Amino acid sequence: MEAKQLVQLAEQFGSPLYVYDAAKIQSQYNKLEKAFSRVEHLRINYAVKALSNISVLKLLKQMGSGLDTVSIQEVQLGLLAGFSPEKIIYTPNGVSMEEIEEVALLGVQINIDNLSILEQFGAKHPTTPVCIRINPHVMAGGNSNISVGHIDSKFGISIHQMPHLLRIVQNTGMHINGIHMHTGSDILDIEVFLYAAEILFETAAQFKELEFLDFGSGFKVPYKKDDIQTDVEELGKKLGKRFNAFCAEYGRDLTLTFEPGKFLVSEAGFFLAKVNVVKQTTSTVFAGIDSGFNHLIRPMLYGSHHHIENVSNPKGKERFYSVVGYICETDTFANNRRIPEIKEGDLLCFRNAGAYCFSMSSNYNSRVRPAEVLWYEGKGHLIRERETFEDIIRNQVVMEFETPATPVAVTV
Ligand SMILES: Cc1ncc(COP(=O)(O)O)c(C=O)c1O
Q1: Cα–Cα distance between 119 and 293 in angstroms, integer?
Q2: Of the residues 182, 183, 359, which should be mutated to test ligand 1's pocket, given the most ligand atoms within 8 Å of the CB?
Q3: Superfamily of segment(s) 22-262
Q4: Which residues have C-beta within 8 Å of that of residue 195, sequence separation ≥ 6?
Q5: Which residues take part in binding pyridoxal 5'-phosphate (predicted)?
Q6: Mean pLDDT value across residues 83-105
Q7: Over residues 31-58, mean pLDDT
Q8: What is the tens place of the pLDDT at every residue in 248-278?
Q9: Buried/exposed 281-298: b ≥16 CB within 10 Å, e otherwise
Q10: Domain range annotation of the chain
């Protein structure tokens, strides 16, 4: 999107503001689908956690996407957006048996990642098809918090526990219809992906009634100019070919499933915030904006890089700034970053603000969350109103404390 359009949207809808470009989401979806065109049955399940606005879910539904969910609330959002339960997979971690049963009752595909729940669920619901999330013990992902397929990770059933898993399946007579893995986000090297895929194929060969193999996600998107990104065309060629060969050996056409979040929405997002104050200190020049890690936590949580532009002065002479928020603790978006000259009142734009940005926002410091706008067919559509003070106090139950009628005597 162009700087001028973004400035206009901030004037129309206020600041801070999240803007999502629908055309970019659509082109990313098409790119992935095209990369795997040699696979007969491909299913893309958008990972709702990345950006869960119902209008974004509806846009993806229109593209033919399914959904990957991790909570019953994400399932409910998907159903509200019009997805049929068969188009939704539920991959919880550390969730109660009650919630899993509730989701299963809705007709959603269940994906189980631990032996205890697998055994309980299989014993009670042997006819409900279940997918199994394995832990392939592969270290992949751009950050320790988002590397989830390694041996110390809490996710998935270890491949070394396969004999135990097979015993549970046999004893309960349950129906396993899918095998799943997700090794982590921001995977740099497709060879790691292909290596983990071999482990998934080996595991899958031990189950006779499979319908799909779910390779999770982890596609790396670029965060800055010339940054590495997952070569999905190359992955499509290599994994597609290997998948087809596996189906031939297996004797049945399976569905190849992915569940991308970042790949579909990260680059489509722009976070706009106004500069409240430019503060020269002895060490740097701070640009303090009308936002903080309550709205965009990734830099503080993961050390993530978000490219920052001054859309009010895009061609200005570059200077060094530390961009900080208004939160009452260290709240840094960027340290000594080259940005076109900033004046108080200018609008800054943070790139890659589509995934894990609004969805991780909070009311910390009792601040309201920003509005969200979807830029669709040349027009900005408000898809979430800015919160108000009423939203902050909505669920508070206020106690009243009576002032004592007579002062309490204090004896010494
Ligand atoms: C199980 C699972 N699937 C898919 C995703 C989406 O990953 P990404 O946003 O890197 O595509 C995640 C991310 O945390 C995940 O945990």
Answers
A1: 41
A2: 182
A3: Alanine racemase (3.20.20.10)
A4: 138
A5: 218, 356
A6: 97
A7: 98
A8: 999 999 999 999 999 999 999 999 999 999 9
A9: eeeebbbbbbbbbbbbbb
A10: 22-262, 269-386
Res. 186 pLDDT band, cuts 50 70 90: confident
Torsion, Cα 176 177 179 184, to 10 degrees, reads -110
Q: Residue for token digits 């996600």?
A: 217
In this structure, how many other beta carbons lie within 10 angstroms of the beta carbon of residue 301? 13
CA-wise closest residue to 43 among 266, 187, 251, 212: 212
Distances (CA, A) of 324 to 149, 203, 300: 34, 48, 11
Residue range 117-139, pLDDT digits in tens: 999 999 999 999 999 999 988 86
Per-residue CA distances from 37 to 28, 57, 101, 195, 247 (Å): 14, 23, 35, 21, 16
Task: For residue 302, say whether it is annotated as part of any ligand binding site.
Answer: yes
Report whether residue 185 contacts ligand 1, using a CB cutoff of 6 Å: yes
Entry pTM: 0.94
Residues annotated as part of the active site = 328
| Ligand 1 pocket residue status of 218, Cβ below 6 Å | yes
CA-proximal residue: ligand 1, atom 16 (nearest): 182
Residue 359 exposure: Cα atoms within 13 Å on the Cβ side: 20
Grouping H, G, I as helix, E, B as strand and the rest as coil, residue 133 is: strand
Domain 269-386: state its class.
mainly beta
Q: What angle do CA 104, 107, 113 make, to 5 degrees?
A: 40
* Cα–Cα nearest to 260, from 64, 66, 39, 27: 66
Nearest-10 crossing angle of helices 22-35, 54-63:
40
Q: How long a stretch of residues is the chain?
A: 412
- % of the chain residues with pLDDT over 70: 96
Peptide bond connecting 16 to the previous residue in cis, omega within 30 degrees of 0: yes
Query: Which DSSP state fits 127?
Result: T
